[in-house]
Design goal:
With 150 residues, the protein is an all-alpha fold. Helices cover 60% and strands 3% of the residues. The chain is elongated.
Amino acid sequence: MPLGLELAAAWVRKLSCAEIAQEIEHSLNLLTTPWRNVPERHRSIRAAFDYSWNLLTDEERQAFRQVAVFRGGFRREAAEAVMGGQWSAAGGQLIDKSLLQVTPSGRYEQHPLVHQYAEEKLAEIPTEQECAQERMAVTFSTLCRIARND
């Protein structure tokens, strides 16, 4: 994320690299610039994400929010279980829009800053968050039972 690197680099005179990383883990708000000679969507990482968010369809937004329950990546089957079978079209669009990547092994992953933003969006709708977390727990509980029986 070149914009994120540029925004973080501006803090090097005030904070150590470790402190910058720690601040970013807690909030995206550190990654801002006071410069007015750049487009609004480039003045902060949040503004860049908000710009992308506003370009998503409702289905893509829902998929983006719900996959925030996964840490460290996930497989298509897990995403479909969490989303009630509505993953394929929206998931493909999130890849096309660079909000998800597919690894060579077929797992989906998000950049940590993108994941943090997705978690924030999911937390804005507590009922959706609870439902997605519940579906994920059921899915992984089932996988654990299957693995134990093999």
